[in-house]
Design brief:
The complex is a heterodimer of chains A (279) and B (280).
Chain A: H1 5-8, E1 18-29, E2 32-43, E3 47-52, H2 58-65, E4 73-78, E5 81-82, H3 88-95, E6 98-101, H4 113-123, H5 128-141, H6 157-169, E7 175-179, H7 187-204, E8 207-212, H8 215-223, E9 224-227, E10 232-235, H9 238-243, E11 247-253, E12 256-261, H10 263-268, H11 272-278
Parallel strand pairs in A: 3-8, 3-11, 6-7, 7-8
Antiparallel strand pairs in A: 1-2, 1-4, 4-5, 9-10, 11-12
Chain B: H1 21-48, H2 57-97, H3 103-141, H4 144-150, H5 155-193, H6 198-207, H7 211-237, H8 242-278
Helix pairs in contact in B: 1-5, 1-7, 2-3, 2-5, 3-5, 3-6, 3-7, 3-8, 5-6, 5-7, 7-8
The chains are: A alpha/beta (279), B mainly alpha (280).
Chain lengths: 279, 280
């Protein structure tokens, strides 16, 4: 039996717990050192928006959080586990508690939309009836219920990103990692994706790292919320803001955290480099 | 901090240091040793994965269909004509001594011990090793392999082991079919070209074979199957440089697996002949 979205929410969890923590992370490649002592943490239900130029290490930070790469030095802790020291075999189990939305979707092109979304559930040997209902539920949630039998190549870029998000959240992970989910999309489609991220945050209560070059994505998450009763996205009033899921900005520059703070602090920052993001 | 509004990153000082010839050679040697190490690790894991869950039987069956059934037409065609041409070449020599009836013996031994496994291995390497490299390479450059890892699936279990197992099962079967069809081709050629009796050809072809010959051919097909599958998967999972890299990996997969098959054939033949004397 499918659960209602509200029952899926992880509302009972405390929100002060640190779910993701980077401490003095260094990472180098042949072209040079990309991360030079990055430290930050994300609390439960918090959304951290990673801003930075191309090549500043946003995607790298997400891959380190998922354990897809190991840092040269420093530590990465996720859900209380030291990801930076875990073997690939140990990481496979932990990654089932995380959802990763890749920049280009990274959907399996030989599988249909339904099979893509059901992939993780089939890996966990859920029964087929449960898989069918869960896949339908999540595809309805992203408003792509009629695409179940289509191949990824038959979808538009925006639809592929949404299916990728559906695939990442189908087993209801407490952490989501979004790698530039709106990159290269038109403003209307980008807004649809941002709304979906907002709904996932407010309905499922996920903790998220969102890498983006678009400041407006971060402000949308900070200033709006999804009202489950009216099923509409609403601008937060000052009262609602105090109880809403926190959104913080983190700006990467030259391999270091250049700025870390709330949307209000970012807007108030009188720094020429940060001002360029606001233009 | 940037000096001008348009300057986003500070200019980097260029490094004028040029590596010496020795450094370049040492780096190249290290890279090659690293490749051999990575290939060995992947090959070893592809086998050890088979003994522990999760196992992907559906994927294995699909690969068996693709590798086995898909390769059948080229194996049948090439097998038939290789048998026929072998009879034409050897028959002409035997005719000089009036011993054309020995043709069946020679063709049978050559096909079972050597040409069946080797030609089938090379054909399947050309078709499937390249296919594996391009398929896995495309998945790698489109981040599908990373997506798989991010969802808690081990790509070596899901992508490599089913391909290796499917090839290990299907290549001996394809080799058997190739040898049989080769003998049929040889028989047709001997009947029409050498005016040999078909029954005599078959009887001699079967009678000459010993257990060691069958073991030699079978062992070779297993080893060649392992080589072509692991090389194809290794090349695919180590693609660098986008779609151009996929093309390069595909070519390297065919070249490397073909060369390795021929080199392995030499050593296997030597070992098999030694064992045939000592054991069988």
């Amino acid at each position: 039996m499918a659960q209602s979205p509200s029952s899926l929410a992880l509302a009972s969890q405390t929100s002060s717990e640190v779910l993701i923590e980077f401490s003095g992370v260094h990472m180098s490649f042949a072209e040079g050192e990309i991360l030079r002592g990055v430290s930050f943490s994300a609390q439960r239900k918090e959304t951290l928006v990673l801003l930075g130029e191309t090549g500043s290490g946003k995607t790298l930070t997400l891959k380190l959080a998922a354990g897809l790469l190991h840092p040269d030095s420093g530590t990465v802790d996720v859900l209380g586990e030291r990801v930076s020291r875990m073997s690939e075999r140990e990481l496979l189990g932990l990654r089932r508690k995380m959802g990763f939305v890749f920049q280009e979707g990274a959907l399996f092109d030989s599988l249909t939309v339904g099979e893509n979304v059901a992939y993780r559930l089939r890996e966990d040997h859920e029964n087929e009836e449960e898989i069918e209902s869960r896949v339908r539920e999540i595809l309805e949630f992203i408003e792509l219920g009629d695409t179940m039998g289509l191949l990824p190549s038959e979808l538009s870029g925006g639809m592929r990103r949404r299916v990728s998000i559906a695939r990442a959240v189908v087993n209801r992970p407490p952490i989501l990692l979004y790698d530039s989910p709106t990159a290269g999309l038109d403003p209307i489609t980008s807004q649809t994706i941002t709304t979906l991220i907002l709904r996932l945050r407010d309905v499922y209560g996920v903790t998220a790292l969102l890498a983006t070059q678009r400041l407006q994505d971060g402000f949308a998450l900070a200033n709006f919320h999804f009202d489950s009763a009216t099923r509409r996205v609403r601008r937060d009033s000052a009262r609602e803001k105090s109880g809403a899921a926190a959104t913080r900005f983190l700006v990467l520059r030259d391999g270091k955290i250049y700025f870390q703070g709330s949307p209000e602090e970012l807007l108030a920052a009188n720094d020429p480099y940060l001002q360029r993001f606001l233009i | 901090m940037a000096d001008t509004p348009l300057q986003v990153t500070e200019p980097q000082a260029s490094s004028p240091e040029t590596p010496s010839v020795v450094e370049v050679l040492v780096d190249a040697a290290k890279n090659n040793v690293l490749k051999v190490q990575d290939y060995s690790k992947l090959s070893f894991r592809s086998l050890t994965n088979l003994f522990t869950p999760p196992r992907y039987m559906q994927d294995t069956l699909m690969q068996m269909d693709d590798i086995g059934v898909g390769s059948l037409p080229i194996v049948l065609l090439s097998g038939f004509f290789i048998g026929a041409v072998l009879v034409l070449q050897t028959g002409a020599q035997f005719e000089r001594f009036g011993q054309t009836m020995l043709t069946g013996d020679v063709v049978s031994i050559a096909l079972v011990r050597e040409l069946g496994p080797t030609i089938t291995g090379l054909l399947v390497a050309g078709r499937c090793s390249s296919g594996m490299a391009s398929e896995l390479g495309s998945m790698l450059v489109t981040e599908q392999v990373d997506a798989m890892r991010a969802m808690g699936t081990d790509p070596s279990r899901k992508l490599v082991s089913p391909r290796v197992l499917a090839t290990l099962i299907t290549l001996p079967l394809l080799t058997t079919i190739s040898v049989f069809v080769g003998l049929a081709g040889g028989m047709v050629a001997s009947v029409f070209s050498l005016r040999l009796d078909a029954t005599t050809f078959w009887e001699r072809a079967i009678a000459i074979l010993e257990f060691s010959d069958l073991m030699q051919g079978f062992t070779k097909s297993i080893v060649f199957g392992f080589i072509l599958a692991t090389v194809g998967c290794y090349q695919g999972l180590n693609v660098r440089g986008g779609t151009q890299g996929v093309g390069r990996a595909t070519t390297q997969a065919v070249v490397a697996s073909s060369v390795m098959i021929i080199v392995a054939d030499t050593f296997l033949t030597k070992i098999a002949l030694f064992l045939a004397d000592k054991v069988f």
